[in-house]
Structures are given as structure tokens and as C-alpha cells.
Write a structure and sequence with these properties.
membrane
Length: 77
């Protein structure tokens, strides 16, 4: 019993942390879609410098893309 409880606690913590992380990431992506400054900042962190046309295209792509876990599943090739 001394070994089972910590293992169960670890598993519950990992699963809970995963779902909290997914929820947080979805909220950040939703904010980024409507906030061009945040999108520009992320692009600069990745080493890209987007001009106005590229920024509009990136925002359009994010709006058209279904949220993770929603919509159609990806097809395997």
C-alpha cells in the first residue's frame, strides 16, 4: 500500500497536468489569433520577421485551422 498510493498520485498528477497544459495552450492560441502583436512576438522568437502581408496570411491560417482536438482527425500517410 505504501508503494501503490504514490504511483496512483503520480499518474493522476501527470494526467491532470497534461489536460491543464492543453487547456492553457488552446487559450493562448485563441488569444494569438486576435492579437497581431502576440503573433509577431512569437514569430520573432522563432527567428522570423513577418511583414504586413505575411502577418495577415498567418492570422488567416490560424483562423481557418480547427482547434486541436476539434474537427477532423489527421489522416496518416
Amino acid at each position: 500500500m505504501d508503494i501503490v498510493i504514490p504511483i496512483i498520485t503520480l499518474i493522476v498528477g501527470l494526467v491532470g497536468g497534461f489536460f491543464i497544459g492543453v487547456f492553457y495552450l488552446r487559450k493562448q492560441l485563441e488569444k494569438m489569433q486576435s492579437n497581431p502583436d502576440m503573433l509577431q512576438k512569437m514569430a520573432k522568437q522563432m527567428g522570423y520577421n513577418l511583414n504586413g502581408k505575411q502577418m495577415q496570411r498567418a492570422q488567416q491560417m490560424m483562423k481557418n485551422q480547427p482547434a486541436p482536438g476539434k474537427g477532423q482527425a489527421r489522416k496518416r500517410k
